[in-house]
Amino acid sequence: MDTLEAIARETGLGLDDAAFAAAMDARDPLRAMRDEFALPTVAQVTADGGSSSGSGSSDEAGGSEPCTYLCGNSLGLMPLAARRVVDEEMDMWAGRGVVGHHRHAQGRAWIAYRTRVAELMAPLVGAQADEVGVMNTLTVNVHLMLAAFYRPQGRRTRILIEARAFPSDHYAAESQVRWHGGDPASDVMLATPRPGEDTLRTDDVLQLLADHGDTIAVVMLSGVQYYTGQAFDMPRITAAAQAQGCVVGWDLAHAAGNLDLALHDWGVDFACWCTYKYINSGPGGIGAFFVHSRHHDAGAAAAERRLTGWWGHRAETRFEMTNRFEPAVGAAAFEVSNTPILPAAALLGSLEVFARAGGMGPLRAKSELLTAYLEHLLNERVGPKRMRIITPSDPTQRGAQLSVVFSESYFARVFAALSAAGVVCDERKPNCIRIAPVPLYNTYADVWRCVEVIRDVL
Ligand SMILES: *Cc1c(COP(=O)(O)O)cnc(C)c1O
Prior knowledge:
Aspartate Aminotransferase, domain 2; alpha/beta; 4-stranded antiparallel beta sheet; Kynureninase; globular; 13 strands; binds pyridoxal-5'-phosphate; 16 helices
């Protein structure tokens, strides 16, 4: 807010003027990045199912202007580079068949694809390239990581998750406990916000670890809570849990590509994330994971216990087919099957865009401004009598997303008005709208427009 206010003074504009949004967009160092994305039109996102081609063809009845897309927390927009790289792989497949595994027109031999992806992904999460792998989708990777890292023994049998964890994470934790012969009622421990509060206090998490840490085998929280948008203090929680002897894994579904992460330096044991939210790899995109280098040695407990397949075998001798597993170096040894090239290609195209933007540093700087601007406009132009923002207002405790709760009588009207106006957000029952301005492709004008639609309908 200090930065926004300083710019308002400098430009002689009021923070609440529409012209302020235009001025912010004009001086945005990342403004050219928006052109790297396919922006759906208003007509395309408001059309009834099946009646729009969805292909970007122009629309005679109007609505050909870009929609206001504030839903990158759920599915990021398509980078043009994603389509280009997928097309190139289809051409390789058509033109070379199996030869493409080794000889490739763009120098991306399929056999080494995972390594290219890992090299571009690692800086986004603050990892060494050999600490990152790509495979499957998120929940499957949660299971594979827990197979390696969840080792109930003696008193230490529990998995700690949030009481309001994403259901898939909840089911994964419960079923892992059951799979290991435990009872989810006692071995899945839930961290719950205080009565009347929406978000978890870091101090409460630390207290819970101090009181019960010796009974917890794995702490598995989310980096950014999907519903409230709260960002957890990952370095502090990681250190406190490890001091109690717990293994610490993070679900980074809503944090990867959103926050500036430093998984290696924080000493995180493992992490998993999907890439179709802030990382824009497309619907059902391939998942990624992190295993800290301290777990890479063949003798490390996680390495002993992991579930393996041929793609985790050293590339140099994989095709000797000896049935003697020789682990690849690092996280690669935790991969199981050969890399699905088409989803990995879309991800690779997207990661090129992150690299061109200069990585998470500049993106996070813009993101903090965009989200502060959204918060300001909601508070000033809609007002706390009509809505409540449950996301923390401290910028260190949130990413791009604000979760806005409306009374039941307003909620349906607001969401319908946004949808009709071509403002794409998402609703979470019973009465929460998640709004996520994404620094790669959103503008200050997008934020302004969204708030004006809400203001008008109320
Ligand atoms: C989006 C999301 C998922 C989705 O899981 P998939 O296995 O990719 O379908 C899981 N957990 C969290 C916390 C999420 O936000």
